[in-house]
Amino acid sequence: MRIAVPREKQAGEARVALVPESVKKLVAAGAEVGIEAGAGLHAGFPDAEYQTAGASIMGRADLLPEADILACVNRPEPDDFARLKPGVVVIGFLKPLDEPAGRDRRRRPDLGARLQAARPGPRRPSGRTAAGRRRSLRLRPPSPARTGLTSAT
Question: Residue 145: inside a domain, yes or no?
Fold first, then answer.
C-alpha cells in the first residue's frame, strides 16, 4: 500500500497530513509513504525528518499517480484528482459544501463512495464550547437518580 502526502497549496495553510512520527509507524506496519518535497516545511518538519522516518521524498507529478491512499489536509486541487489512479482513497477535509458546483467536477465514479461519505461537521469542539460544557456540568444540581438519594415523603 502506497500512501501519498502532497504539499498543501492553499494560501496560509501550515498543516501537513502526516508528521514524521506517524510516517514511522506506517512504515513499520508495512506501508510505503511518499511525501511531496517541502510538504512539512511550514509545519516545522523538514524533508530530512521524513526520510529518517522511512518516507520517500518525491515530486507531485511522480507522487499522485502511484498513490493507493491520498492523505491531505484540504481538498486536493481539481487537476490532482485527474492524476489519481482508479480506486484511490482520499482522506482529508474535502469540504463538499464549500464549493457545491465543484463537487460534480471533482467526483469520479472510480474513486468510490468515500468522497460522498464525507460529512460536514465540527472537527473538534472549540475551547469555549468545551469550557461551557464543563461549567454547565458543575452548575447543574445532581439528580436523585444519579446520586441514589430519594426524597423522604
Answer: no
